[in-house]
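pasting for the record
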Amino acid sequence: MELTDSSEIRLIRRQKRKNILREVFFYKKFVVKRFVKLKAFPDVRKVWKMEDRALKRLEGLAFPKSLGFTEKKFQGVKEIIYGREYIEGTPVKWLDASDVGELAELMAKIHRRGVITCDPAPDNFLRRANGKLMFIDFGRSKIVNPRGPIFLYRIGKELARIQGRAFFNDRVLFSKFLNHYSQLIDLSPNQWKFVNFIYFVWARYWWVRHKRRTGHDNTPKRHHSQVYSGK
């Protein structure tokens, strides 16, 4: 994409880390992200490419439209400009019981298109003016084949993230979420067994890391409300 009128560009955020300058602008009705790689190393995760691919997979649903990205290099400095549609709304600070059903529907829509967010934290969701939730940050997302075995692995890992990041390890909320979500994803009982296994492994792993950092022992244990056995 090309920016033609600099007078309409408003800087929202600027951050420099590891010789990479990241800037976010508001341009007309679009969000424009600029990445300037000042040195060859360290490398930077291609978040612009990940987000562009994810949003194109989700076209036709209620998600921002991607404008694509451009890459330029001059005298060893690489510049990437990426743009997407701006969506008005309020950042989400936490998710509670009233959000469980809607969150399950939202994540199921994303997953059925073969997109895994990899970062379902509350601050990556937006509450629109009509009260509906929207996920807006696909910079860490993965694209997978919804019919392949990797899809099941990614779903299991994503569920562990949802419990830990979206619900801050509230098992009651996560259990309610899983009851809704499991009705929206068409998996066989054997597939659910594999998903549950991957979920439990990653949930436990992250709790062990949490215990080491904080000294609190609250590792998850298997029980009926956390494990879905299939329809």
